[in-house]
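At this stage, I needed to go through a protein sequence along with its fold in token form, as given directly below:
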Amino acid sequence: MRNRPLRSAGQTAVDAACLLGVLAVVLWPQVEVYGGTAAVPAIVGGLLLGGGVAVLSAARGWSPLAVVAVVVVVYFAAGGPLAAPSTTVAGVLPTLDTLETLLRGVGSSWQQMLTLQPPVGSSGGLLVAPYLLALVGSVAALGIALRARRGGAAAIVVPVVVAGVVALLGTRRPSIPPMTTGVVLLLVLLPWAAWRAGTLRLRRVLSLTVLTAVGLGGSLLGAPAVVGETPRLVVRDEIVPPFDPRAYPSPLAAFRDYVKREKDTKLFTVTGLPAGATIRLATMDRYDGVVWNVAGNGTAESSGEFRRVGETIPSNARGSAAHVEMTIDKLSGVWLPTVGEATSIDIADSAAAEGLRFNEATGAAVLTGALRPGLSYALDVVVPRDPTDTQVGRAETEDVSQPPTNVPDVVAVTAADVARDAGTPVQVARTLQQWLSEKGYFSHGATDANQVQSLSGHGANRMVSLLDGDIMVGDGEQYAAAMALMARAMGLPARVVLGFVPHAASDGSVPQGEPVTVTGDDLEAWVEIPFVGYGWVPFYPTPPREQTPEQNEKPNPSDPQPQVVQPPPPPPDAVKPPDDDTEQPGTKTPPSDQSDGSLWSTIAKVGGVVSVPLAILALPFLVIGAVKARRRRRRRRDRDVARRVAGGWDEVLDAAVDLRQPVLAHATRAESARSLATAFSAAGDVHQLASAADRAVFSAHRPTPAEAAAYWADVETAVRGMRRAVGWRRRTWARLSLASLRGRHRPRRSRP
């Protein structure tokens, strides 16, 4: 194919600097999503390679299909070191695994990065997404700018589209605020487009400056009043993860099974457990009057929002760093034991690792495929130091959104009576903890071990019997549930944690750093309350194990229970709590219509994400079609009716150019018509169209708008006939061709 002279080197450099620079700013928030500098080579390399392909293809005059073929070759040739370095040899030489990763990454990398919590890391083909955005975006933007003389300004559409995709794939608080990105797009692309069109004037620069200032002022002052607290849409926060905690029974409801049936059973082994650290199994913040459980899918701060995580987990916790290793033995279920604030979780079994889901708000983890004996994994953690009441001081509790609770009235009345003299929030929490721990008695209800009878469960009826019975007796399940409800009744956000406090690690029977065996007897439940500046602080309301009542013990008259005002009878439509909740029911399965709706919603969202790379690949062709449609609409709506008719003939000639049958450069309309009739035997009467155009341009009779509309109808018929006269390949190429936009091999137009 014959070379086509490029614009001057200086003009090409300006185009490249403006468009590639703007794309770099637009893509920069993806660096934060991947963490560190993992995405920098993919973004920078994609921009440079895409820019080089755009310049070379414009200089050589390649067709759009040839450009797409070259982009595919470049994608696979450079994709190894830039987008999948872990699959290459020495980080450079591609392997078969590299090609497979790049091929799958075109469709799967978008889904993978959206189901991982930032920073997602660079393993596998995760970097394919930013690499594709940079490569295809730079080719499309710079290619349009260098090829289409009249439509060069249309290249500004590409950075805007890429910015929208990056915003959807990013985080709620990107490193470069959306306002900054918008200002850069406005201040760089609009002057560049005006310069390309030759309409850049000083007065227009001043006008643009004033409009920009007004727009920024309106955005900064008016936007908060309009949108309020409405969060920015981020696809990552909208995709429902595959793990739904509502499908599983409450972990706290199994408390008695652990402490009775698994009392001496080796559940798992932990190595490297820091001194004084506890092991978290599940965190629950929703109480429905029957059980404490994790909340359903909701906001990112919900206890039920479990997501995939990358190689590292972001954490702002301050404390002692540690490396902990765990091996599962008899522990079953989906809940994965964790310690402190995990910064990474490395599961040795890659198949099991695919099922890892983590909740950053609570620090809990699950394996969707369930635990199995022999499963080993390692955690890098930060163990925060629990602050004292003096350190917390007068700090307020954090504003945490929690699900509503169905609480018996006796809970609120008892909490108010117990903490009536407490002042600060931490004093209220500590008073509730001490009252339960000092006034209550401990019992698992194991009558065969000479323990006093104690019902299991923590439903509304059990809370009433605990707080308003003759003797307050129970174990960690009841006391943790009661304190969390009492704290909420006093206005303190609270949640219940189920975990393990290994006795072997606390009593010094196992040397520090040696493996610690955890059994069902180590199970414990406690309460966490968040304070500003200190995060979630634990409280342990369970009485000491040696604090047990005698079998025949009755309340001591000299030490009466707090006077509790009996609540009024419930209204007729009130929900009566169950009479006996010793058998804890599992959470209800959501109605089928809701699950069906959720399934279709998930399918729609995932389908939309997968279509992103296809839309990016189709973007250049969509832009070409939009430019041609705009040209056709401008000609057809010209205010001068004579030029409107002449524009119809120009549309016929442009169709011939795109179909690779251009007429002679200086031919008259009649000569052009003869050439077209010969080239397209089924093109209709183009002679009549040429004569009508000559009459409209040169005769004294001015055509009417109705005549112009009829002329354009004949033009469309002729163009359809020209396209039917050639094969489907030429028809397809014609719709994607830039030949008519470049204006080459076109006859000189006669002007009225």
Q: What stands out?
A: Residues 303 and 367 are 15 Å apart (CA to CA). The longest strand covers residues 319-328. The first helix runs from residue 9 to 27. The chain has three domains: 9-235, 245-546, 637-742.
